[in-house]
Amino acid sequence: GRHLIDPEDFTMEELQTLLELGLKMEARPEEYADCCKGKIMGTLFYEPSTRTRLSFESAMLRLGGQVLGFSDAAVSSAAKGESLADTVRVMDDYAHALVMRHPREGAPKLAAQYATVPVINAGDGGHQHPTQTLTDLLTLQKYRGAIENLQVAFCGDLLFGRTVHSLLKTLCRFPGMTFYLVSPTELRIPGHLRDELQHRYHITLHETSRLEDCIEDIDLLYMTRIQKERFFNEEEYVKLKDSFILTRDKLKTAKEDLMVLHPLPRVNEIQYEVDDDPRARYFEQATMGVYIRMALLSAVMGVNLA
Ligand code: CP
Fold it and tell me: Aspartate/ornithine carbamoyltransferase carbamoyl-P binding domain: from which residue to which, for each copy (predicted)?
């Protein structure tokens, strides 16, 4: 089957096709109500989730398919010591595609080696989250139009932030992009990723710990949560957790057509007062997650949409 483990598993052409389909599905979802009839999507979630798992389920149900799975490893036989490989070999016969979230980096890639059906990475540790990237791209496409010549700031936990790793890596493939990486020094993007992207795309990644350095220039502000679950000790987390708190005041000097995105969940990094600002698009973003996953599921299941 066709897996989605890393955002680069799709060519630019395939990405564009998926985005076009996502927009069509958003405009006329009823036209696709039967396209996954008879198909089953399996969810293997070894880590908590609200949006990713439930938007996948909603997508599959809207396509006329069915869903099964677990949302907590503690209620699966992983709790009895079953290996990931064995779990996948079994689930393989229960579903036509497997959607997996796991705290361990590389777990979905391993699963794909044992699966005969498509495996979709729904987030692996602090590594990658390719379907969040698809969601982010669809949001940009819908509310901004062409994805090109944008000044983008990523803000928060860039070290463990899998949504940032996947989106940054993907936006580098679009023309004319400029990036600001705003984080405490302790949470800068992994050095190997920075070096690889600079080498491959000949871009400069502007690293700073001050949002003020770029807030007036940017077109997209991608906020992220400082993730308690990725820290080894509580003390370090407490020290860094409120590094960035976006307020209405901080947006005063920003462009009128800025877009503020956040993969969610948020904790404290965007004040609720920002939600009413027309530039805040993170709830629309969560909605787009359903439509792009409809497009993705129909693509990996090989549904003929003609
Ligand atoms: N954006 C995202 O991955 O959210 P969940 O953790 O709720 O799935």
Answer: 2-141
The residue type found at 280 is: A
Is 141's C-beta closer than 6 angstroms to any atom of ligand 1? no
Structure-block tokens of residue 193 = 């990723």
Q: Residue 42 pairs with which residues in a beta bridge?
A: 68, 98
Among 43, 44, 52, which residue has the most ligand 1 atoms within 8 Å of its CB, making it the best to mutate? 52
ipTM greater than 0.95, yes or no?
yes
Distance CA(9)–CA(11), nearest Å, equals 7
Beta-bridged to residue 66, according to DSSP, are 40
pLDDT in tens, 149-169: 999 999 999 999 999 999 999
Q: How far is the CA of 259 from the centre of ligand 1 (A)?
A: 20
Choose among 161, 162, 141: nearest CA to 291.
Answer: 141
Measured distance CA(60)–CA(37) in Å, rounded: 9
Using the mean position of ligand 1's atoms as its centre, give its distance from the Cα of residue 140 in Å: 18
